[in-house]
Structures are given as C-alpha cells and as structure tokens.
Automatic annotation (TrEMBL):
Gene: Bri3bp
Database matches in InterPro entries: BRI3BP
Protein's recorded name: BRI3B protein
PANTHER family assigned: BRI3-BINDING PROTEIN (PTHR31253:SF0)
Keyword Membrane attached: yes
Keyword list, A-Z: Membrane, Transmembrane, Transmembrane helix
Pfam family, one: BRI3BP
GO cellular component terms given for this protein: mitochondrion
Transmembrane intervals: 57-82, 89-109, 115-137
C-alpha cells in the first residue's frame, strides 16, 4: 500500500509540475510580448536598473498587476465553478484541494523544508480566502434592500405566530 501511495503521489507531483511549467511558459511568453526579459527578473528589481530606466519599472509594475489580475480571475472562476458543481459540499472540494496542494509542496521540497514555508503559506492563504469571506460566497447576497426587508418581515410574522402558539399552550396548561 505504501508503494502504491508513493507512486500515486509521484505521478500527481509530475502532473502538477507539467501544468505549472505550461503556465510558466505562457507567462514568460506574455512577458516577452510586453518587452520584459523573463529569464532575468531579478534585474528589474534592482534599484540601479529602476533609476536608469523608469519605464522598465512601470512595465514591471504593470506585469505584476497583470499577474495579480489573471491569478484572481483564475482563482475566482475556478472556485466559483467548484462551488456551482459541489453546492453544499463545496467544503469537501476545498479540503481535498488543500490537502493535495500540501502533499505536492511537501513532496516537492522533501529534502529542503525551509523552502516549503512560503508555498505552504500561500496555499493556506488561498484556503482561507476561499472560505466564507471569498468573492463567490458573497455573490449570492446581492439582493436589494426591499427583498431583505420582506424577508425580515416574513421572519417576524413567523416568530409572532410561534409566540402566540406558545402563549396559547401555556394558557391551556394553566387552565387545566
């Protein structure tokens, strides 16, 4: 059984590596189109390079914002799709993805656990962002103020009916 799980984990890690390599190639091609050399990104972060060429800094900031926008769109769509597919059992999908992500990171950085801290922190942050504070959880609460007031009014009516029934039952109990 141990050998089966180790092979399964290895294949999972290889599959995710291929997926991440594909995303990285697409991203580097996009950066090349923007005129940013993706092979040497650390050059763009040095203060001397920014002082010598401020347009490079602007391009770098634009690329970072573009990456953040693509990542948020992808994660938002992906988790909204999962929420639509799993409905009330979305938490199972969240836990499964969280577990698989942690297995991937721990398997990938098996010999060097210090390098696994930052990816694990990122995975934990995504896990908590996809919880009840996430965008797709709030999407269904876009009802108007009138609808909310009608809902509260119906809840008050139901509470009044229940309260009157309880009072009637107490009156009957005291009469007997």
């Amino acid at each position: 059984i141990s050998q089966f799980f180790s092979r399964l984990t290895e294949r999972f890690v290889n599959g995710v590596d291929i997926l991440m390599d594909t995303f990285w190639r697409i991203w580097t091609d996009l950066l090349d189109v923007l005129g940013i050399d993706a092979s040497n990104l650390t050059h763009y972060f040095s203060p001397a390079a920014i002082a010598n060429n401020p347009t490079r800094a602007l391009l770098l900031i634009g690329a970072i914002l573009l990456a953040y926008w693509f990542l948020s769109l992808f994660l938002g769509f992906f988790f909204y799709l999962l929420h639509m597919l799993f409905g009330r059992f979305f938490w199972i999908a969240r836990v499964a993805l969280f577990t698989l992500s942690c297995v991937y990171i721990l398997q990938k950085y098996e010999g060097d656990p210090e390098h696994a801290v930052l990816p694990l922190c990122f995975v934990v942050a995504v896990y908590f962002m996809t919880g009840p504070v996430g965008f797709y959880w709030r999407r269904n609460n876009n009802s108007s103020l009138e609808e909310k007031m009608d809902h509260l009014d119906s809840q008050i009516r139901l509470l009044n009916i229940r309260l009157s029934r309880v009072i009637e039952n107490m009156d009957r109990g005291s009469d007997q």
